[in-house]
Amino acid sequence: MGWKLTSIPAPLSISLKAEFGFNEHHQNEAINYMRFARSKRIIRLKTIDSCFEDLKDSRLEETFTVDEVRDMLDGLQLVVRGEVETELINTAHTNVLLLRQLFSQAEKFYLRLQTDISELENRELLEQVAEFENTEFKNPNKTNQEISKPKLAPLNEGGVSELLNKEISRLQEENNKLKGRLRTLETQAMGALDEKTRAERALKDLQKVKGEQQMATHSQEITSLEDTVAALQEDYQKSLSVNAASQRDLQDNLVSAKHDLLRVQEQLSLAEKELDRKFQQTSAYRNMKEILTKKNEQIKDIRKRLSKYESDE
Question: How far apart are CA 229 and CA 225, in angstroms?
Answer without folding.
Answer: 6
